[in-house]
Inverse folding.
Protein backbone atom coordinates (compact mmCIF):
# COMPACT_ATOMS: atom_id res chain seq x y z
CA UNK A 1 0.00 0.00 0.00
CA UNK A 2 1.02 3.60 -0.46
CA UNK A 3 2.65 5.06 2.65
CA UNK A 4 4.18 8.27 1.29
CA UNK A 5 4.70 10.31 -1.86
CA UNK A 6 6.80 13.27 -2.91
CA UNK A 7 5.89 15.47 -5.86
CA UNK A 8 8.68 17.36 -7.63
CA UNK A 9 9.11 19.20 -10.94
CA UNK A 10 11.52 18.06 -13.63
CA UNK A 11 13.08 21.09 -15.37
CA UNK A 12 16.61 20.24 -16.52
CA UNK A 13 17.74 23.55 -15.00
CA UNK A 14 17.13 21.98 -11.59
CA UNK A 15 20.48 20.23 -12.15
CA UNK A 16 23.32 22.69 -11.41
CA UNK A 17 25.60 21.23 -14.10
CA UNK A 18 22.89 21.95 -16.69
CA UNK A 19 21.92 25.35 -15.29
CA UNK A 20 25.58 26.45 -15.03
CA UNK A 21 25.60 30.17 -14.15
CA UNK A 22 21.84 30.17 -13.54
CA UNK A 23 22.00 27.40 -10.93
CA UNK A 24 21.27 29.82 -8.10
CA UNK A 25 17.94 30.83 -9.61
CA UNK A 26 16.36 27.50 -8.62
CA UNK A 27 18.25 27.04 -5.35
CA UNK A 28 15.12 27.39 -3.19
CA UNK A 29 13.17 24.99 -5.40
CA UNK A 30 16.08 22.51 -5.37
CA UNK A 31 16.21 22.66 -1.56
CA UNK A 32 12.49 21.97 -1.36
CA UNK A 33 12.95 18.92 -3.63
CA UNK A 34 15.77 17.69 -1.39
CA UNK A 35 13.51 18.02 1.63
CA UNK A 36 10.71 16.12 -0.10
CA UNK A 37 12.96 13.23 -1.18
CA UNK A 38 14.47 13.04 2.31
CA UNK A 39 10.96 12.73 3.76
CA UNK A 40 10.24 9.95 1.30
CA UNK A 41 13.33 8.00 2.35
CA UNK A 42 12.51 8.54 6.03
CA UNK A 43 9.08 6.94 5.57
CA UNK A 44 10.75 3.52 5.46
CA UNK A 45 9.41 2.09 2.18
CA UNK A 46 10.15 -1.41 0.99
CA UNK A 47 9.43 -0.29 -2.60
CA UNK A 48 10.31 3.16 -3.93
CA UNK A 49 9.14 3.97 -7.46
CA UNK A 50 9.75 7.11 -9.51
CA UNK A 51 6.80 8.11 -11.72
CA UNK A 52 6.95 10.46 -14.70
CA UNK A 53 5.51 11.08 -18.14
CA UNK A 54 7.24 9.82 -21.26
CA UNK A 55 6.59 8.34 -24.67
CA UNK A 56 4.74 5.20 -23.60
CA UNK A 57 3.63 3.08 -20.67
CA UNK A 58 6.49 0.93 -19.43
CA UNK A 59 8.53 0.08 -16.36
CA UNK A 60 12.29 0.53 -16.13
CA UNK A 61 14.48 -1.44 -13.69
CA UNK A 62 16.55 0.02 -10.87
CA UNK A 63 19.68 0.15 -13.04
CA UNK A 64 18.05 2.17 -15.84
CA UNK A 65 19.99 5.28 -16.76
CA UNK A 66 19.27 8.74 -18.05
CA UNK A 67 21.29 11.65 -19.39
CA UNK A 68 21.32 15.35 -20.20
CA UNK A 69 23.11 15.29 -23.55
CA UNK A 70 20.08 16.92 -25.20
CA UNK A 71 20.72 19.94 -22.96
CA UNK A 72 24.37 20.28 -23.88
CA UNK A 73 25.85 18.55 -20.83
CA UNK A 74 27.63 15.20 -20.83
CA UNK A 75 26.08 14.08 -17.56
CA UNK A 76 24.54 10.68 -16.96
CA UNK A 77 22.70 9.15 -14.03
CA UNK A 78 22.35 5.43 -13.39
CA UNK A 79 24.44 2.52 -14.55
CA UNK A 80 22.59 1.62 -17.74
CA UNK A 81 22.14 3.26 -21.12
CA UNK A 82 20.29 6.61 -21.01
CA UNK A 83 16.78 5.32 -21.73
CA UNK A 84 14.81 7.24 -19.11
CA UNK A 85 12.70 10.22 -20.27
CA UNK A 86 13.51 13.64 -18.81
CA UNK A 87 10.98 13.33 -15.98
CA UNK A 88 12.51 10.09 -14.70
CA UNK A 89 16.07 11.25 -15.37
CA UNK A 90 15.59 14.25 -13.10
CA UNK A 91 13.84 12.00 -10.59
CA UNK A 92 16.82 9.64 -10.57
CA UNK A 93 19.18 12.61 -10.20
CA UNK A 94 17.21 13.88 -7.17
CA UNK A 95 17.20 10.40 -5.62
CA UNK A 96 20.95 9.92 -6.12
CA UNK A 97 21.57 13.38 -4.71
CA UNK A 98 19.82 12.20 -1.52
CA UNK A 99 21.67 8.88 -1.43
CA UNK A 100 18.49 7.00 -2.29
CA UNK A 101 18.22 4.15 -4.82
CA UNK A 102 14.73 3.68 -6.29
CA UNK A 103 13.57 0.15 -7.04
CA UNK A 104 11.81 0.95 -10.31
CA UNK A 105 10.90 3.74 -12.71
CA UNK A 106 7.33 3.97 -14.02
CA UNK A 107 7.13 5.77 -17.35
CA UNK A 108 3.59 6.92 -18.12
CA UNK A 109 2.41 7.62 -21.65
CA UNK A 110 1.95 11.38 -21.86
CA UNK A 111 -1.30 10.76 -23.77
CA UNK A 112 -2.72 8.25 -21.28
CA UNK A 113 -6.21 9.09 -20.11
CA UNK A 114 -7.23 9.40 -16.46
CA UNK A 115 -8.57 5.84 -16.30
CA UNK A 116 -5.28 4.32 -17.39
CA UNK A 117 -3.30 6.55 -15.04
CA UNK A 118 -5.51 5.77 -12.06
CA UNK A 119 -5.25 2.04 -12.75
CA UNK A 120 -1.46 2.31 -13.05
CA UNK A 121 -1.35 4.02 -9.66
CA UNK A 122 -3.51 1.38 -8.02
CA UNK A 123 -1.22 -1.33 -9.41
CA UNK A 124 1.89 0.47 -8.14
CA UNK A 125 0.34 0.69 -4.69
CA UNK A 126 0.20 -3.12 -4.66
CA UNK A 127 3.92 -3.48 -5.44
CA UNK A 128 4.86 -3.84 -1.76
CA UNK A 129 3.68 -3.59 1.84
CA UNK A 130 5.10 -0.07 2.12
CA UNK A 131 5.21 1.74 -1.22
CA UNK A 132 6.58 5.26 -1.68
CA UNK A 133 6.30 7.26 -4.90
CA UNK A 134 8.50 10.06 -6.20
CA UNK A 135 6.14 11.76 -8.65
CA UNK A 136 7.71 14.04 -11.24
CA UNK A 137 5.66 16.63 -13.10
CA UNK A 138 5.59 20.27 -14.24
CA UNK A 139 2.58 22.53 -14.32
CA UNK A 140 1.52 24.79 -17.18
CA UNK A 141 4.24 26.20 -19.42
CA UNK A 142 2.01 29.15 -20.35
CA UNK A 143 2.27 31.33 -17.23
CA UNK A 144 2.85 34.95 -18.25
CA UNK A 145 5.33 36.68 -20.52
CA UNK A 146 8.35 34.63 -19.36
CA UNK A 147 6.74 31.35 -20.44
CA UNK A 148 8.28 29.26 -23.24
CA UNK A 149 4.89 29.23 -25.00
CA UNK A 150 2.31 32.00 -25.50
CA UNK A 151 0.65 32.93 -22.22
CA UNK A 152 -2.81 31.55 -21.50
CA UNK A 153 -5.06 33.32 -18.98
CA UNK A 154 -6.27 29.94 -17.68
CA UNK A 155 -2.77 28.78 -16.71
CA UNK A 156 -2.60 30.43 -13.26
CA UNK A 157 -5.99 29.04 -12.25
CA UNK A 158 -5.08 25.56 -13.47
CA UNK A 159 -1.81 25.58 -11.57
CA UNK A 160 -3.50 27.04 -8.51
CA UNK A 161 -5.98 24.16 -8.52
CA UNK A 162 -3.13 21.64 -8.77
CA UNK A 163 -1.29 23.33 -5.90
CA UNK A 164 -4.42 23.25 -3.75
CA UNK A 165 -4.98 19.56 -4.52
CA UNK A 166 -1.39 18.70 -3.63
CA UNK A 167 -1.58 20.70 -0.40
CA UNK A 168 -4.78 18.93 0.63
CA UNK A 169 -3.75 15.47 -0.65
CA UNK A 170 -6.95 15.62 -2.68
CA UNK A 171 -6.68 12.58 -4.94
CA UNK A 172 -10.16 13.14 -6.37
CA UNK A 173 -9.25 16.65 -7.54
CA UNK A 174 -6.15 15.32 -9.32
CA UNK A 175 -8.21 12.53 -10.86
CA UNK A 176 -10.58 15.12 -12.34
CA UNK A 177 -7.87 17.02 -14.24
CA UNK A 178 -8.97 17.19 -17.85
CA UNK A 179 -6.35 15.87 -20.30
CA UNK A 180 -7.26 18.24 -23.13
CA UNK A 181 -7.00 21.26 -20.84
CA UNK A 182 -3.66 20.07 -19.48
CA UNK A 183 -2.37 19.45 -23.00
CA UNK A 184 -3.45 22.91 -24.18
CA UNK A 185 -1.76 24.49 -21.19
CA UNK A 186 1.37 22.33 -21.68
CA UNK A 187 1.08 20.87 -18.17
CA UNK A 188 3.30 17.81 -18.50
CA UNK A 189 2.69 16.57 -14.97
CA UNK A 190 -0.97 15.61 -15.44
CA UNK A 191 -0.43 11.84 -16.13
CA UNK A 192 1.99 11.37 -13.21
CA UNK A 193 -0.27 13.27 -10.80
CA UNK A 194 -3.16 11.03 -11.79
CA UNK A 195 -1.01 7.94 -11.14
CA UNK A 196 -0.49 9.33 -7.64
CA UNK A 197 -4.24 9.84 -7.34
CA UNK A 198 -4.82 6.20 -8.27
CA UNK A 199 -2.37 4.98 -5.64
CA UNK A 200 -3.97 7.17 -2.96
CA UNK A 201 -7.49 6.12 -3.88
CA UNK A 202 -6.44 2.49 -3.44
CA UNK A 203 -5.71 3.01 0.27
CA UNK A 204 -7.61 0.52 2.47
CA UNK A 205 -10.49 1.67 4.62
CA UNK A 206 -9.28 3.55 7.68
CA UNK A 207 -6.33 5.19 5.91
CA UNK A 208 -6.02 8.60 4.32
CA UNK A 209 -3.30 10.88 2.97
CA UNK A 210 -2.12 14.16 4.47
CA UNK A 211 -0.47 16.73 2.21
CA UNK A 212 2.08 19.51 2.65
CA UNK A 213 2.93 21.93 -0.15
CA UNK A 214 6.59 22.91 0.11
CA UNK A 215 6.85 25.08 -3.01
CA UNK A 216 4.72 26.54 -5.80
CA UNK A 217 6.41 28.93 -8.18
CA UNK A 218 6.80 29.72 -11.87
CA UNK A 219 10.18 31.43 -12.30
CA UNK A 220 10.37 30.79 -16.06
CA UNK A 221 6.66 30.86 -16.77
CA UNK A 222 6.33 27.13 -15.96
CA UNK A 223 4.49 25.94 -12.87
CA UNK A 224 6.69 24.03 -10.43
CA UNK A 225 5.31 22.26 -7.36
CA UNK A 226 6.95 20.41 -4.49
CA UNK A 227 4.75 18.49 -2.07
CA UNK A 228 4.86 15.62 0.39
CA UNK A 229 2.00 13.23 1.11
CA UNK A 230 2.02 10.92 4.12
CA UNK A 231 -0.49 8.25 5.04
CA UNK A 232 -2.51 8.86 8.17
CA UNK A 233 -5.04 6.76 10.05
CA UNK A 234 -4.40 3.31 11.39
CA UNK A 235 -0.73 2.39 11.80
CA UNK A 236 0.84 1.72 8.40
CA UNK A 237 2.60 -1.63 7.92
CA UNK A 238 6.06 -1.63 9.58
CA UNK A 239 9.21 -1.66 7.50
CA UNK A 240 10.77 -5.12 7.28
CA UNK A 241 13.71 -5.41 9.72
CA UNK A 242 14.18 -1.64 9.62
CA UNK A 243 15.21 -1.78 5.95
CA UNK A 244 13.99 0.66 3.36
CA UNK A 245 15.07 -1.30 0.31
CA UNK A 246 17.93 -1.09 -2.18
CA UNK A 247 20.83 1.10 -1.07
CA UNK A 248 18.62 3.61 0.70
CA UNK A 249 19.78 4.77 4.14
Amino acid sequence: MLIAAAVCPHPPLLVPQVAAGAAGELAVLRAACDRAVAALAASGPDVLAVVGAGGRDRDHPAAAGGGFADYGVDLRVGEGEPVLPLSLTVGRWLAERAGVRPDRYAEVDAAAGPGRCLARGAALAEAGRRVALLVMGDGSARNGDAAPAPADPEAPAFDGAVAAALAAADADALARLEPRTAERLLAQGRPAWQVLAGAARALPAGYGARGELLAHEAPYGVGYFVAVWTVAGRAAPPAADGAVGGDRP
